[in-house]
Amino acid sequence: MSAPRAGLLSRIKIKPDWYLILIVLMGAAATIAPAQGQAALSLDWVTRAAIALVFFLHGARLSREAVIRGLTHWRLHLVVLASTFALFPLLTLGLAALPAWITPPELAAGLVFLGCLPSTIQSSIAFTAIARGNVAAAVAAASASNLLGIAVTPLLVGLLLQAQGGVDARSVQAIVLQLLVPFVAGQALRGWIGERISRNARVVGLIDRGAILLVVYTAFSGAVVEGVWDVLSGLDLARVFALCAALLGAVLALTAVAARVLGFDKPDEIAIVFCGSKKSLASGAPMAAALFPAAAAGVAMIPLLIFHQMQLMACAAMAQRYARRPDIEAVSG
């Protein structure tokens, strides 16, 4: 079993790194040749269509059976959801409130936005499997996080950033509908198209990732046109990197401690740690484009891009450490 796990782990390490390179290249392309004028307007409409398609596909491929199968483990799911939608927002709100010499004011809204996002699905499940954790619970918890995040994330962002003017609270309801309508449509059509989507998972994945690249280019184009690089410096990015590292370390530690204090066994602890400590780029990029004006969306995604790669590297190392524990520990927990 160790060889398949090692192979899966190597794929998890390599693929996100290459994809992150593509995302960085899209940001660089937007810096060198940003979309402007009529091209920007046309690209904005294409991006909106891509966002709708992404959430339609999420709805069509999300297994309701997987969620229902794990719902009986309600204590575990409550811990994961509390970490995702309560602990994270509180911590990032605290980071955003730090003095300007610690937290760059231009990136404070992006930190709060990061804290409000749902968990990942694929990597949370994959790392839980590698670490010999409760995979069924991870499937249900990560799926529930993404399902709730479609409605909860815009509401949280609107609530927490309203005082700073980061998001127009009056448009939150319209944004929720923009994300929910295609998602619900996908769920409604799942019985007809779910099998076809499953058979073409690679094509669907390419569409998903391609849409995110498009969102990144569009968002950064708007930010560049508005002069983002005249405002942000290398020191600002370094400070956000340090803040994201501190945030990830705190959440990993707190979720592990909470799981042990609440009496969960080791497989459950693994599911809680990996599902409760991640933030989804797949959901975050389209949500940023929907929630923020074009000039602000690119800046808002910077903490997410940094945190996303950081969480993959840290959790890959943790999954290896968990997997090396004695078998008897996983059985007796």
Please, what is the average pLDDT? 79
- The succession of helices and strands, N to C, reads HHHHHHHHHHHHHHHH
Structural class: mainly alpha
Distance between the termini: 20 Å
**CATH architecture level-2 label:** Up-down Bundle
Which residue ranges are poorly predicted, with pLDDT under 50 across at least 5 consecutive positions? 12-16, 328-333
Query: According to CATH, what is the class?
Result: Mainly Alpha
Q: How helix-rich are the residues, as a percent range? A: over 70%
Total beta strand runs: 0
Please indicate the percent range of residues in DSSP E strands (runs of 2 or more).
Answer: under 5%
Q: Describe the biggest sheet?
A: none
**Number of helical elements:** 16
Coarse morphology = globular
InterPro entries: Na+/solute_symporter_sf, Put_Na-Bile_cotransptr
GO cellular component, one term: plasma membrane
Keywords: Membrane, Transmembrane, Transmembrane helix
Main attributes?
333 residues, mainly alpha, Na+/H+ antiporter like fold, disordered C terminus
Summarize the structure.
Helices cover 83% and strands 0% of the residues. It has 333 residues and is mainly alpha-helical. It has a single domain, classed as Up-down Bundle (Na+/H+ antiporter like fold).
If you had to describe this structure to a student in words, what would you say it looks like?
- Pfam families: SBF_like (PF13593).
- Keywords: Membrane, Transmembrane, Transmembrane helix.
- The chain crosses the membrane at residues 45-64, 76-102, 108-130, 137-160, 172-189, 240-263, 284-307.
- InterPro entries: Na+/solute_symporter_sf, Put_Na-Bile_cotransptr.
- One of its GO terms (cellular component) is plasma membrane.
- Residues 12-16 and 328-333 have low confidence and may be disordered.
- The protein is mainly alpha-helical and 333 residues long.
- The protein has one domain (2-324): Na+/H+ antiporter like fold (Up-down Bundle), CATH 1.20.1530.20.
- The chain has helices spanning 2-32, 37-61, 64-70, 74-96, 105-116, 122-130, 135-161, 172-188, 190-199, 201-225, 228-231, 234-261, 266-276, 281-291, 294-323, 327-332.
- It has 16 helices and no strands.
- The protein is globular.
